[in-house]
Design brief:
Layout: H1 21-34, H2 45-49, E1 55-58, E2 72-88, E3 93-101, E4 106-112, H3 117-120, E5 126-136, E6 141-145, E7 148-152, E8 167-170, H4 179-192, H5 204-210, H6 215-223, H7 231-235, H8 240-266, H9 277-286, H10 293-307, E9 313-318, H11 324-337, E10 341-346, H12 349-362, E11 370-373, H13 380-390, E12 396-400, H14 402-405, E13 413-418, H15 428-434, E14 440-445, H16 451-457, E15 462-466, E16 477-482, H17 486-498, E17 502-506, H18 514-532, E18 538-541, H19 547-558, E19 564-567, E20 580-585, H20 593-600, E21 611-616, H21 622-633, H22 637-647, H23 673-687, H24 694-705
Parallel strand pairs: 4-6, 9-14, 9-15, 10-12, 10-13, 11-12, 13-14, 16-21, 17-19, 17-20, 18-19, 20-21
Antiparallel strand pairs: 1-8, 2-3, 2-5, 3-4, 5-6, 5-7
Helix pairs in contact: 6-8, 8-23, 8-24, 10-11, 21-22
This protein binds adenosine-5'-diphosphate and magnesium ion.
Length: 715
């Protein structure tokens, strides 16, 4: 019998239409990927069903072409009449366009660099086009750029009641699966799911108290609203079924947080370090500059945690470039001088290598044994290094978060420093505790959590903030530029490169295809080198390169052998090349605010004036325009993260996972604040003073056993 617990990769055994063995596997993989979850086997029907629609459409009555109006966001159903592709911009951009009609008029739709559309959008094809319609005066018709499409298979035209003639859900792409296919599968899965197998997961008293929809009903309705439902309410995420699921998400988040607070109070004591004048002297000798006031304050708080016997669990927030690394390193000195080992972990190998380089230089005058352990094959050297760790022959180890995930053995681990934790998404501290270790933990992030949320989300974490920038920094000047200004932008790049500065050009991950994305960056790099910047040395960095290659490219950029670095977002966090003065971000409208701010932080690290140029399509959503506008107006990471939170919905943007905010799939921290508050009170009511009760124990077991309830979140 199909149930919520049925593993997704066995979905084909349950006679769900359209799902065979290989599709089931692909689906499980796509869901795992969406949740940043490593284990495909663990993905269940439940995980699939929590991939909720991005929006809802009333297809009982489609908009006709004749009814379109300027700036209207609408779906039309039309037949493709002509289609074709051509190159523009000296072959650098490929446009594919169609002309389509529904009997009441004609429209044009076009896409940049999406050649795969040619396969499906052939003349005669029936297609639903959704996007922002604009009147084209020259062609005298409405047109749309980058429309979402749903091609109606010939065999099904008019036959399937799931897709047209009713209220329909529209989904974000899930792996290779597009909205139409997802709609069918969700429909069939929900149909085959006996109501009794959808077990309620909230306490009955909670459901009653807040008059919540039962889980089964909520799941069904959140995918397929009733025919008399108010779709505006659905699209605003205010329908009772959606509110119930949002409440549920907050409930488990709050439950997980409450448990963490409880665990922490029950945790054994942490190491107790001592600090004397000798250690202060050593600290002074390794510091290449005077600390700013904020750095000093943060360090004082950290040292005070370290010298007390409760285990430190501190978040160090500071904007990009504010100088968190040196503070962390001084904390490491305290641990090492007390006879403990320290670990510094970064989210990417490039960053770990960079830390290792800097740290080794800074610690030159000390006798500390520092080792960097970055990914790499399981060679003998690595095995020896690990043995040295376990034997206590290493004082400071630097690596990626794999250090902890793989359960690397330490001799006497006293301090763990986690850099840029927002890229992790997982709860390293819990992993440490599961391994029976209680070192002091310092988490650093450049994506500040707005104060309005810190209390709710990080209730058990101490927070230090570095607001002040090291002296001599000039704020990065930011501008938005459109396609027609490209030559001018390149001229500017040439001037800067001639003046001896270095330039980044970053390409986004294209949602549709990682391969395409890679090709975009690769082709762009080739063409830029050959046609645009033949006189400069240009190189390419992307995620598919081997760690050694990446590192080599970074090294050459750092050494100034490369003037222009073309890259996908792998350079995002923390890379420090102080001679870089220009950051160009292509398709900036596709990035989230946190990510844009991070990228911009790659320049302006020296004392020269720096620039960030956001290349954008004219045709973009209002929200994207608002994001770029904020970037132009503000350099303050705190302000940006507050605005970010207001603007965005869960899971809808590139970079959401990198935001420092827990992965919420349905809930929106600002929009749904009322529910967040309710959930918080509810958890408090259930747990307060009743930690030993069977009910709380049952809920706690659920949080601990279920990865989605444990919510991949908060360091
Ligand atoms: P982030 O907080 O983004 O990790 P880093 O620690 O990488 O920032 O520091 C950014 C740059 O500022 C580094 O080049 C670092 O050497 C420099 N820096 C940090 N603190 C100071 C200071 N007090 N005075 C001068 N330069 C500093
Ligand atoms: Mg850093």
């Amino acid at each position: 019998m199909l149930s919520l617990k049925t593993p997704l990769n066995q979905l084909h055994l349950h006679g769900v239409k359209g799902v065979g063995f290989s599709v089931a596997r692909k689906l499980a993989a796509a869901v795992a990927d969406e949740q940043a979850e490593a284990s495909i086997e663990r993905m269940t029907v439940e995980d699939l069903l929590y991939h909720l629609p991005a929006r809802y459409e009333d297809r009982s009555r489609m908009v006709r072409i004749r009814e379109l109006a300027e700036g209207m966001a609408a779906s039309i159903l039309a037949t493709v009449r002509v289609s074709g592709g051509y190159f523009v911009k000296r072959g650098r951009l490929r446009i594919f366009e169609i002309s389509a009609t529904d009997g009441t008029g004609q429209v044009r739709a076009y896409w940049w660099n999406q050649p795969w559309r040619e396969k499906t959008l052939k003349p005669g094809a029936e297609v639903i086009l959704y996007g922002l319609w604009k009147w084209n005066r020259g062609k005298r018709c409405f047109e749309v750029q980058g429309a979402e499409t749903e091609v109606i298979p010939e065999a099904e035209a008019g036959a399937e009641p799931i897709h047209t003639g009713r209220h329909v859900p529209v989904y974000h792409k899930l792996g290779v699966f597009r909205t139409r296919w997802l709609r069918s599968v969700m429909h069939h899965v929900l149909e085959s799911l006996p109501p009794i197998s959808v077990v309620e997961n909230l306490p009955p008293a909670t459901i009653r108290r807040h008059q919540l929809a039962p889980r089964g009903v909520a799941l069904r309705r959140a995918h397929f609203p009733a025919e008399d439902a108010d779709l505006d309410e659905y699209n605003a995420r205010r329908a009772p079924s959606q509110r119930r699921l949002i409440f549920e998400e907050f409930f488990w988040l709050q439950m997980a947080l409450a448990l963490r607070r409880q665990d922490r109070q029950a945790a054994p004591k942490g190491p107790r370090f001592e600090v004397d004048d000798r250690i202060r002297g050593i600290a002074r000798t390794i510091m290449p500059f005077t600390l700013t006031g904020d750095q000093r304050t943060a360090l004082r708080a950290i040292v005070s945690d370290m010298t007390s016997d409760h285990p430190m669990h501190r978040l160090l927030q500071g904007d990009v470039g504010s100088g968190k690394t040196i503070v962390a390193l001084l904390a490491a000195v305290v641990a090492i001088e007390n006879g403990y080992q320290a670990a510094l972990m970064a989210p990417t190998e490039i960053l770990a290598e960079q830390h290792a380089r800097n740290v080794i230089r800074l610690l030159q005058k000390t006798p500390y044994r520092v080792m960097s352990l970055v990914g790499g094959p399981r060679t003998r050297a690595r095995a020896q290094a690990l043995a040295a760790m376990a034997a206590g022959e290493i004082d400071l180890i630097i690596g990626t978060h794999a250090l902890i995930q793989e359960g690397v053995e330490f001799h006497k681990l006293g301090l763990v420093i986690i850099d840029e934790q927002h890229r992790f998404g997982v709860l390293q501290r819990a992993q440490l505790m599961q391994q029976g270790r209680y070192p002091d933990v310092l988490v650093m992030t450049a994506t500040p959590i707005p104060r309005s949320l810190a209390m709710t989300l990080y209730g058990d974490l101490d927070v230090s903030v570095i607001r002040e920038m090291p002296p001599g920094r000039i704020p990065v000047q930011t501008a938005v530029r459109f396609e027609e200004a490209r030559e001018k932008v390149y001229r500017f790049v040439r001037e800067e490169a001639r003046a001896g500065r270095q330039i980044y050009i970053v390409y986004p991950l294209v949602e549709d295809s990682e391969k395409l994305d890679l090709r975009n960056a690769t082709e762009a790099a080739e063409s830029l080198q050959r046609h645009t910047f033949p006189e400069f040395k240009l190189d390419l960095l992307h995620g598919r390169k081997k760690p050694a290659e990446k590192e080599a490219v970074m090294q050459r950029f750092l050494a100034g052998e490369i003037q222009i670095l073309v890259s996908t977002t792998v350079i995002e966090v923390g890379v420090d090349v102080s001679n870089a003065s220009v950051m160009i971000i292509e398709h900036a409208e596709r990035f989230g605010l946190a990510q844009l701010h991070q990228l911009r932080g790659r320049v302006g690290r020296g004392s020269a004036r720096a620039y960030c140029i956001l290349m954008s399509e004219r045709n973009r959503t209002e929200e994207a325009a608002a994001r770029l506008d904020i970037m132009v107006r503000s350099n303050d990471g705190f302000e940006i993260s507050e605005r970010d939170l207001e603007l965005r919905g869960p899971g809808e943007l590139l970079g959401t996972r990198q935001s420092g905010i827990p992965v919420l799939r349905l809930a929106h921290l600002v929009r749904d604040q009322d529910l967040l508050q309710l959930a918080r009170e509810e958890v408090e009511r259930i747990c307060h003073g009743r930690w030993k009760s069977p009910e709380v124990n049952r809920l706690a077991a659920m949080v601990r056993s279920h990865s989605r309830y444990g919510l991949a979140m908060v360091g």
